[in-house]
Amino acid sequence: MRKVYNFNAGPAMVPEEVLKQAQAEMLDWQGTGMSIMELGHRGHEFKEVAEQAEADLRELMEIPKNYHVLFLAGGATTQFAMVPLNLFGEKKVADYIETGVWSKKAVAEAKRYGTVNIAAHTEHRNHLAYVPTQEHWSLTKEAAYVHYTPNETIDGIEFHWVPQTGDVPLVADMTSNILSSPINVSDYGIIYAGAQKNVGQAGVTIVILREDLIKDPLPYTPTLYSYKTQTEHHSFYNTPPTYSWYIAGLVLAWLKRQGGVKAIYEVNQRKAKKLYAMINQHKDFYLCRVEPDYRSMENVMFYLHDEKLTPLFLEGAERQGLMNLRGHRVSGGVRASIYNAVPEEGVDLLVNFMADFVKRNG
Ligand SMILES: *Cc1c(COP(=O)(O)O)cnc(C)c1O
Q1: What is the pLDDT of residues 50-64, one digit of tens each?
Q2: SS3 of 51, please?
Q3: Which residue is catalytic, options 29, 102, 245, 254?
């Protein structure tokens, strides 16, 4: 088998160790003669898997006791609806920070259930994107919550600071940056993340929510979309996505073996620095359209000045085993998604390829 590095934005690379363990355990779960995916979700075997995954997540993120952890189906996109349905309450007003494709989708969904105030959005200076600092935001006093997307996966824009919203709960879509750097969970009311970028396989979504935010949702809310129902049943109201939950557990255990979030953050910073340094070094060849302070550590998004060369770049990269570097269909260009599971040596190969490509085509 050819060794490749997968830079896909999601579903994304999974640690090889995890894939091998899943393969080894596939046919016979701990002597039962059955696969974990065939075992009942209410049986003790799966229950142990589920509880261990939650315990490891709590340990890795230092989640305080007054936060619930849910493992739900429906992807991050379902949370775009669940957040307003459960938090709007009688106020029915919320503030959203619109910094890219995913936050726009979250806004569109919330608008179906109440009033959305765009308190701030991405702006441009010298053709580079940035997010205005908080003194320029127009937050609403009576907002039920403030929603933002710390890392915009498609646009390559990341907050390297946490908005301060006082008593108004802060809700974060961390689908592409959960577990990539240390955070303080108690800065947030709700954190949610689809697993397919940094926690394994598509199908399960992690929701971390502060207990005092659980109340009756809007009356027409479907049963499964109620945080109250889901927390009362510990994500077991119906059949949860058991296999994705199991894979998430393997990834969390792997992350602990890497030394946890602090340790992987060091590696992540180095990986991103190497790529941005290469882009800076060849400014007249490569172009990043985001201001340095807002560049994403997880999704390094750049363009070739001569866009006609982009297909040649992507083909050349693939020949060296550097896969899925094509930018999103709405943005074009090149995007290297370098989540926790992408090894530093893959980034080194990409950086070398970029230097070489300039030599041959610059
Ligand atoms: C990928 C992504 C989503 C969409 O996730 P689904 O699980 O496909 O619904 C939402 N938000 C962000 C920030 C993402 O990166």
Answers
A1: 999 999 999 999 999
A2: helix
A3: 102
